[in-house]
Amino acid sequence: MGKVAIIGVGQSAFVRSYPGSVRELAFEGFKEAMQDGGIKASDIDASVICSAPEYDKQRSPAGVLAEYLGLNPQPTFYVESLCSSSSMGLRTAYALVASGLHDVVAVVGFQKMSEISSAESQERMGRGADIQWESPFGTMMPAYYAMHAQAHMARYGTTSEDLALIRVKSGTYGQGNEKAVYRKGVTLEMFSQPGTAMSGPIASPLRVGDCCANADGSSCIIVASEEKARAFSKKPVWIMGLGSATAPVNMAGRDSLSGLFVARASAEQAYRMAGVAAKDIDVAEVHDCFTIAEMMAYEDLGFARPGEGRDLIRSKETYKEGSIPVNVDGGLLSKGHPIGATGGSQIRTIVLQLRGEAGGMQVKDPEIGLIHNIGGVGLYGNVTILGR
Amino acid sequence: MSEKKEADVRFSKFGTVSFTSLTKTNDFIDYLEQGKLMGTRCRVCGMVFFPPRADCYGCLSSDMEWFEVAGTGKLVSWSTLRYAPVGFEGDLPYSIALLDYGDYKVFGRIAGDLTDDDLKVGMEMKAEVNHLPNGQINYVFRKA
Ligand SMILES: [Zn+2]
Prior knowledge:
The complex is a heterodimer of chains A (388) and B (144).
Chain A lengths: L3 E8 L10 H16 L8 E5 L10 H8 L7 E4 L5 H14 L5 E9 L5 H9 L14 H16 L3 H15 L14 H4 L8 E3 L2 E2 L8 E10 H7 L4 E10 L14 H14 L8 E3 L5 H10 L8 H6 L16 H5 L3 H17 L12 E8 L4 E8 L1
Helix pairs in contact in A: 3-13, 6-10
Chain B lengths: L26 H7 L4 E5 L5 E2 L14 E5 L4 E9 L12 E7 L4 E6 L13 E8 L5 E7 L1
Parallel strand pairs in B: 6-8
Antiparallel strand pairs in B: 1-2, 1-3, 4-5, 4-7, 5-6, 7-8
The structure holds zinc ion.
The site of zinc ion has 8 residues of chain B, from loops.
């Protein structure tokens, strides 16, 4: 089986409310990836379209987008795994290329969350959980992650300030990311003063500042066989490892709430496939939909031992100059989280890092990067390892 | 001529807003109305399920019996919500939680008169059937 590469990456700006239609939004990320890869639509053999369909008015968007992006008559696939849809799309594209069925595949992620109100959006996100047995209690994504935060604090002594430190790091890098929806710096004082931007309670112990914002956005990753990659690209980035896992949707089916099983399982698979360990990762993008999610990711990915994630953030080891830079593009907390586009944006960041093209967020000479992308509250997990 | 059979939508009574009406575990609601919180156990292989299931993934049997969630469970975690999804605004503030009974865990609500200050991870709690003002029914956790 030949190697599989990423030869083009792109994303739209992530914005509060996109002034256009879904197909126009998807075009933005696609165009950037095509220009980045220096290829034409006729070079693409198939597309994988990724979103969470509950936000869409359009039924079966894959066919509509394929036409708008100039990808008729090539086949298209529609892939959904909530917030990890486009990482699942990358996995699908890898399988399509590695099998020899297609040589070049475009993975297009999108979400236009602003079509519905924030409360409606929360209701839909709650229904990404167990609608029969949990949603009737009035569940929401922030509350589920808050339960994980509460459990992590009780078990390990993690504090609300430790979580706020993660948001402060996010703000440090979000300021410099022109694609981010939230581009202001964040200080601990913004959490500690009642009535200030970050301090309002959402779901105990999480506060406003612990949560990412909804956004509209699109992303695109162009995947190619080794032969095509060498023909098209001067700087192909190779897919070294892929891991993916599922877990029970109901919290009652989880063995612990102080970490995510799907992250641990996906990481183990991806490390094994790539033949590397946590210590070999030079730069990482993790799914920080909430500050606690990044804290758990440190531990689930093996960057820190269970319960010691707080030491990483307290000592700034996950900053750009640290031993394991994490989310130095501002992460979901600053970029915003347009569900179906998120994984592709994370992958784009790591590809740019490995090519040395990350501009102001560039970490020093990374060779191996990792993407951790979670769907639902640990319902789906994907970990991807890329190398130069 | 066959008579039109009426759909068994008992489950639409579950919780502040139910998103499910038809399920083979509808008897769960009858038990709640009798004051009992019930799970299911596979009669063939003995696997125990909460939330209840009609089918056993362990042995593929659908021969299930009901058992009562009795005694106390340890509080695994909880969260008190200050914002609610559509349809739940009137319940605010409220807390969702998970109890560990050893053989199974139970997800539900904390009783409305308990606050964050009353709660501690690891404390023993018990489940109790709760009638909601809108005629719906659920269960809540109280200090054991
Ligand atoms: Zn069985």
